[in-house]
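hey m, so remember when u said the tokens were messed up on ur end? i reran from scratch. heres the input so u can diff it against urs
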Amino acid sequence: MECRKVLCAECATDWDGINYCDTCLGRRRVAMRSARRLPGWVALALGSALLLFAAARLMVWTVVFWARLL
């Protein structure tokens, strides 16, 4: 807790094993929302595009392989 208030068990909210008051918990929530998420979304989009490309290549390769066998 950043403010060091003494709270009863009913008033405190447990987060990662630490009891926070409403004010400290509100500040922590705002800090979590304001974190930059763009690099994560870009990495997810690039990874998805790469997996889609690899799956398409594998499907085409499989069809060509089976066509040569028959």
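this time it looks ok to me. The chain has two helices and two strands. if urs says something different then somethings off w ur setup not the seq
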